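Sequence, please.
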C-alpha cells in the first residue's frame, strides 16, 4: 500500500503510565482515535510502567516501545534516538504528538531527524514545574515542531510571553470521558462511605490531586479546612491522591487541629463513587494548565471552588458553575466553601450548570473532533478543517 492511499499513522508519546493528567489524556486520545478508525494509532513511552498500564494493554495497540533515558546529554540519549528513528521509519509515522516536557524534547528531536511530516509539541502548564535550563531546552524543541499544542488559552498566553510565535500555537482543550464520573454499580452513599473508610452524616469537601509537588498547594487546603471547621465542626475533608508529601501534610493537619477531620484516602480509581459522596470539590494549585480534576468535578455535578490559575477560568464560570479565588487565599476559599455548605440550593444549581458546561464544551468527542482537524490540517488533507475552528476562545466558551 502506498503512502498516499494508506491511513496516516499517529504516534502519541508519554513519560509513563503512572496516574496523572497527561497519562489519562493520552490513553483517552489513543482510544478515541482507534474508535474513529481514520488513523493508525501507536503509543510509546519513556518508562513502560505504572498503574494505568493495564488500561493501555486493553487497547491492543501492539508494540509499545520504551525509550528509557538517563539524560539528554549522554551516549544513551543517542542510542535511544536511533531506536526511536528506526521505529518511526519502520511504522511510517506521519504525526508525532508527545504529551510532556521530556517526551517533547526527545520525540520532537527524533521526529525532526526522521523527517516526520507533522510534529506537535505539547504544553499543559503555565510554569512552576521546570527550572530555567529545562524551559530553555523545551523552547528549543518548539522550534522544530510545526505546532505547539496548548491545553488552554492561559497556556497559550504564557507561551507567547515566553517568545513562542502566536501563529504556531493551537489551543485544544482536554476532553473528559463521562464514564469516569458514571457509577459502575448502583451503590448507595452509605455503602460507598463504608468502602472508602469514611464516616456518615458529614458534609465532605474534596480535593483530587497528587501529593508529589508543592505546586498543588495542599497546605492552602489545610488552612481552608481549619477555617471551615471552626464554623462548621461537622465538615470533613477528603484528600485523594498519592505522593511523598503525605507525611508532612498529615503533620500540618495535626498542627492546625484538623487531622481528625481530614481523610487521606490515597489513589482513588473509582472517581465516580468518590465524587458522589462529595458535597463540594476544590483545587488549590498555584499553577495549572487545564485541570482534569475540575472537569471531573463539574461533570459529576459538584460545585467547584478553585484558585484562579491557568485555565481554571476557562472551565469555571464564576457564580454559575463555581467560584474562583486568588492563589493561596485560603480565607477567600473558606468563605466560598462555607457559603455553599450553608446554601444547598445554590450548591445544587452550580453542580447542574457545571455538568451541562462540560457536556457542551469539554466532551471527549469535542476533543477528538478538534485533534483530528489539527492532524488533517498539518497533513494537508482535502477534508481539513480551517485553523479558526481549532481554537475555542474564552468568549466562545462563555
Amino acid at each position: 500500500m502506498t503512502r498516499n492511499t494508506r491511513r496516516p499513522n499517529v504516534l502519541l508519546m508519554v513519560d509513563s503510565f503512572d496516574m496523572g493528567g497527561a497519562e489519562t489524556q493520552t490513553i483517552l486520545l489513543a482510544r478515541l482515535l482507534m474508535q474513529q478508525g481514520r488513523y493508525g494509532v501507536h503509543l510509546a513511552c519513556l518508562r513502560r510502567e505504572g498503574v494505568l498500564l493495564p488500561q493501555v494493554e486493553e487497547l491492543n495497540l501492539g508494540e509499545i516501545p520504551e525509550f528509557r533515558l538517563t539524560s539528554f546529554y549522554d551516549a544513551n540519549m543517542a542510542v535511544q534516538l536511533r531506536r526511536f528513528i528506526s521505529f518511526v521509519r519502520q511504522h511510517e509515522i506521519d504525526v508525532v504528538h508527545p504529551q510532556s516536557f521530556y517526551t517533547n524534547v526527545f520525540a520532537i528531536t527524533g521526529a525532526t531527524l526522521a523527517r516526520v511530516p507533522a510534529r506537535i509539541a505539547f504544553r499543559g502548564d503555565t510554569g512552576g514545574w521546570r527550572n530555567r535550563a529545562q524551559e530553555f531546552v523545551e523552547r528549543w524543541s518548539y522550534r522544530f515542531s510545526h505546532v505547539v499544542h496548548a491545553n488552554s488559552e492561559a497556556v497559550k498566553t504564557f507561551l507567547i510571553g515566553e517568545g513562542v510565535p502566536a501563529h504556531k500555537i493551537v489551543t485544544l482543550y482536554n476532553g473528559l470521558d463521562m464514564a469516569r464520573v458514571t457509577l459502575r454499580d448502583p451503590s448507595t452513599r452509605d455503602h460507598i462511605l463504608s468502602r472508602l473508610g469514611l464516616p456518615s452524616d458529614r458534609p465532605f469537601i474534596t480535593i483530587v490531586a497528587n501529593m508529589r509537588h508543592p505546586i498543588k498547594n495542599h497546605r492552602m487546603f489545610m488552612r481552608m479546612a481549619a477555617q471551615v471547621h471552626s464554623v462548621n465542626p461537622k465538615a470533613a475533608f477528603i484528600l485523594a491522591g498519592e505522593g511523598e508529601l503525605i507525611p508532612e501534610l498529615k503533620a500540618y493537619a495535626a498542627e492546625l487541629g484538623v487531622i481528625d477531620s481530614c481523610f487521606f484516602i490515597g489513589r482513588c480509581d473509582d472517581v465516580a463513587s468518590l465524587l458522589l459522596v462529595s458535597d463540594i470539590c476544590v483545587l488549590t494549585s498555584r499553577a495549572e494548565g487545564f485541570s482534569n480534576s475540575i472537569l471531573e468535578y463539574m461533570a459529576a455535578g459538584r460545585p467547584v471552588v478553585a484558585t484562579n490559575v491557568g485555565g481554571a477560568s476557562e472551565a469555571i464560570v464564576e457564580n454559575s458553575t463555581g467560584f474562583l479565588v486568588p492563589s493561596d487565599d485560603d480565607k477567600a476559599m473558606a468563605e466560598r466553601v462555607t457559603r455553599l455548605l450553608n446554601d444547598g440550593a445554590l450548591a445544587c444549581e452550580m453542580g447542574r450548570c457545571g455538568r451541562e458546561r462540560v457536556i457542551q464544551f469539554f466532551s471527549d468527542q469535542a476533543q477528538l473532533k478538534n485533534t483530528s482537524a489539527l492532524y488533517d490540517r498539518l497533513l494537508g488533507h482535502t477534508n481539513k478543517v480551517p485553523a479558526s475552528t481549532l481554537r475555542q476562545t474564552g468568549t466562545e466558551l462563555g
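The first helix runs from residue 21 to 36.
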